[in-house]
Amino acid sequence: MGFFSKVKEHHRNYLFRPPKPERSRAGASDWPLYWRFIREYAWPKRWSLMICVAMVAINSTSVYLMSFYSRIVVDNILVIKTANTSQAPVERRIWEPDRNKFTVQRPTVGMGKKMDQGIIASHRPPGAGRRLFNIALAYMLTQITLNYLARFSTRQQIIVSQGITEKLREDMHRKVLDLSMSYHQTMSPGRLLSRILSDVDSVRGEMMGFFMSATHCVAMITVGTTVLLYEDWRMCLIAVAITPIYAWMYRRKRPIIRHLNQEQRHTNSCLYGLVSQKIDGMKAIQAYAREKGEVLNFHRISACFMRDALLTQRISAALGREAGILTSLSSCAIFLYGGKLVLDGEMSLGRMMFLHSTTMTLFQPVLEFTQLSFVLQRLRIALLRVTGVLDRPLEIADAPDAVPFPTPLRKGVEVHNVSFAYPAPSSEKETEDDAVTIEDSAAKDLTDRVIKDVSFFVPAGTWLCIMGPSGSGKTTLLHLLSRLYEPSYGEVLVDGVNLRKVQLLSLRRAVGIVPQEAQIFSGSMRDNICYGRPNATNEQIMDAAKAAQLHDFILEMKVQYETLIGQKGTSLSGGQRQRLSLARALLTNPELLILDDCTSALDANTEQKIQETLAKILVGKTAIMVSMRVSMAMRCHKICVIDEGRVAEFGTHDELLKLNGFYARLYHQQTE
Fold first, then answer.
1. Looking at the chain, which residues constitute the CATH 3.40.50.300 domain(s)?
2. What number does CATH give the domain 163-390?
3. Burial class (CB in 10 A: 0-12, 13-18, 19+), 616
4. Residue 471 contacts by C-beta under 8 Å, 6 or more apart in sequence?
5. For 183-198, how does the pLDDT look when each residue is reduced to its tens digit (9 = 90+)?
6. How far apart are the C-alpha atoms of 406 and 507, rounded to whole Å?
7. Main-chain phi, psi angles of 488, to 5 degrees
8. Which residue of 372, 388, 425, 520 pairs with 569 in a disulfide if CB–CB is 3.0 to 4.6 A?
9. Fold of 412-671
């Protein structure tokens, strides 16, 4: 941190903005990251990108052509040349009587008079006016052509940049959908939005800015250096000698700019996470009158971002001022040198103006290189955050020898010595790629695990009811059975086949899941019911709704099954959302049905009807459900009681009553 001693650091450790640990990248090169992005996203657009580069190069180097027009006007049309030195004043001999001798009197000429005598306007050639008009016409046609090329280049840049953005966002969205629930458990939706929207947009802007600026600088430096070497190599040496000073100025500021860019991207991600979290919890914010407190939290993080942005701009402006002073001194030296050559008759005025303009134009891209480095740093930070998601290994994926889900089930489902621990939240140990692997969770101590050495067997065609106190790991166990999470230890077997060896697509089609918190999407009632089976017929959709005791309610709505519901089903009650989620699962006719306390928000009468319906439609099907209702447990073939992540009781209704344990106490509470 020694190079940050001159930077005025400010407090960043606010609520909802955890500090970002530095990740060492000593000896690591960033160029493989850039080449990977170019290869995967820019190279498919190479022809359009090359056209943009060519148009930018032509527009950039046109400044030399304009200076050349001026040289022609001065030297060939206005014909301003250096004076003939033979016309200099003649020395005079004067007799001095006092000294009794002749003295030589040399004429004294001031600098202004020398400049006046240094050049003369000689006779202009015939047709000078016509030539001047032709030059003016050529100048106008050049400007019109360059304007058209600039517009064409801008249009192509938009097409290329938006194409790259679309491809990158699609890849990000596809990867986020493939990542397991363990990742989504540690990464807030707001931070994922920051990756997909803000960081991808930053990559697009910085990438196109870098390509176009680099093309501009390289083209101007190449053409300008060639012109100077051809016209006057001494002025070229003056321009080249200043370049190492620019490089030293940039390297001195580079570590600070990189650090500040990292902090800005991290703060921006925290802002997305804060806004997403508060929008989801809007009811609680308004219910407890916490509006002012949340405004203060947002202001603190926003102010943190603003301070880092201002500090970055201040350092960038300081570097620009230093480079500008150096450029001005160099310009003065070149002007004086060129003026001396004109006075000595070694160079025409038009050529001197052309070389001075070329040299000054050559300094501009060198100065832009200092700003281009900042663009490259911002691109690096955004790419690291994007590739952190794209490169994250899939914890749940098809094995090379994966087989379809065994349909129909013949043996059943077996859980063998399964243990599981959730990964640590990324807010505590976030890195540039937010990587938290399943091996990290597997290495946790036994006391940190939610599920601990659980084993049981559910024969095909039977029902298992899982019960237990709150926080005992019931829902987590269902997530492992449906392979939304991977066990840290142990295995889940379906007809003797490890669930890791089952194809994910066939598994999702054969297993119906009804979560405790119903997931409702914006759209119609029909769209939500047939979400897992889009090609279902109207009769199948209505049969599933009837089985979930939802059909009569839908018929009372304005346009029945085509009625639009709000985001997350805000226009529905909790019980209606649970019944809709149950209808969605029943429509897929699953081989294995997993129910996570899906009747907890229903009244006793509706729950009784759903239980009776399930008893009819699930005949011969395998079902594993979490429920704290004894009435539901009594309908199941086996009951499993989970306590502190372990199997505390397992057996039938009568067997567990004899144990006089948790189930017996729950039975007496609900029946007496």
1. 412-671
2. 1.20.1560.10
3. exposed
4. none
5. 777 777 777 777 888 7
6. 9
7. -70, -40
8. 520
9. Rossmann fold (3.40.50)
